[in-house]
Structures are given as structure tokens and as C-alpha cells.
Design brief:
The chain is of the alpha+beta class. It is built from two helices and five strands, in the order E-H-H-E-E-E-E.
Length: 87
């Protein structure tokens, strides 16, 4: 069962900011892996959030939602850990 991956507008902006960085390939690989396993080892559900999850990629975090009914993973945010949880 494969999930469809979509990026929110905020995640697209975050991805553009990472162009040329050394971590970009690792982040893209981690996003691709979410299609086959949206809850990989090391994933954490964010406290006080209904359906927000995060996965670590080095010092960066991928914050996303999972819709099991539609087999959809929506990437909300890609950011350095110091910026990941700020609105």
C-alpha cells in the first residue's frame, strides 16, 4: 500500500530555501520513504496536536499529517530543528 505525498505551500517554500544544501537529498529520500511507511522507526506524534507527526533528518525536521483513509501524507513543514515548531 503506497501513500500519495503532497507538499503544502509552506513546505514548498521551505524546500526552495534548502536548494543547494547538503541535507536536501537526505530530506527528499526521507519524504519518498514516507510513501511506503508513513510511520517509520523514530517518528514522533507531536504533543497536543491531533494529527501532526515529525521525523528527524539530521538537524532538520519534516512535520506532516497522515490521512489513512485517503492514503495521503501531507508535508506541512521542512525546517531546521530550531525553527520546526514555530508558527
Amino acid at each position: 500500500m503506497t501513500y500519495r505525498i503532497e507538499l503544502a505551500a509552506s513546505a514548498k517554500r521551505d524546500l526552495k530555501k534548502l536548494q543547494g544544501s547538503a541535507v536536501l537529498k537526505r530530506i527528499r529520500d526521507a519524504i519518498d520513504d514516507l510513501a511506503t511507511d508513513p510511520r517509520p522507526e523514530g517518528v514522533k506524534k507531536l504533543v497536543d496536536e491531533d494529527n501532526l507527526w515529525r521525523v528527524r533528518v539530521g538537524d532538520y525536521r519534516i512535520v506532516y499529517t497522515i490521512n489513512d483513509g485517503k492514503l495521503l501524507v501531507l508535508i506541512i513543514r521542512l525546517a531546521h530543528r530550531s525553527e520546526s515548531y514555530k508558527d
